[in-house]
Amino acid sequence: MADNRLSANFSPADREAVMQAIATIREKLPFLVDLTTEDRRTILKMGDKSRAFVSKALEVATQNPNFLPRSFDVEEMRRDVALYEALYPVLLSLTQLQELVDDTCITAGSEAYTAALAVYNYAKASGDVAGLDAVIDEMGRRFTRSSKKKKSATTIN
């Protein structure tokens, strides 16, 4: 294998420790929300450009509560802003970590698949591998294409 970009081991103990750390993160964030696809599509989203707007609106609401309806909860808005600001660096770190784990998983899978293809091709090319014909045939099924159903031809009389 000419291009091996990754060579690592992930022990069961380390895997369990990582899974426990993830469980701890979930435990420390009991307020996490699970949005539906429709919610994600329709909900207002605060991005970088909106952060300054929200901050100014909170300041206006704090300094001038008299024009707001009594049902408007400035303290709840303050808690939402504070939660967003506290979670944002966590989101960035987790996003970066997810991308690294995803890229590493893709790379490991690619290298394993490349090695498997090499084994298969070497086994097929070697005519003296006794007893492996059935296994090679079984591995070869991975590459068989299912035939498309042919439409029956209609003839016009």
User: pLDDT average, as an integer?
Assistant: 90
Percentage of residues assigned to helices: 55-70%
Uncertain regions spanning at least 5 consecutive residues: none
What is the general shape? elongated
Oligomer designation: single chain
Rounded to an integer, what's the Rg over CA atoms?
29 Å
Whole-Å distance between the termini?
A: 61 Å
Strand content: under 5%
Would you mind describing this structure in some detail?
The chain is mostly helical. It is built from five helices and no strands. The radius of gyration is 29 Å and the shape is elongated.
In short:
The protein has 5 helices and no strands. With 157 residues, the protein is mainly alpha-helical.
What does the secondary structure layout of this molecule look like, with pairings?
Layout: H1 12-28, H2 37-42, H3 48-63, H4 74-125, H5 133-140
Short key terms for the protein model shown above:
157 residues; mainly alpha; 5 helices
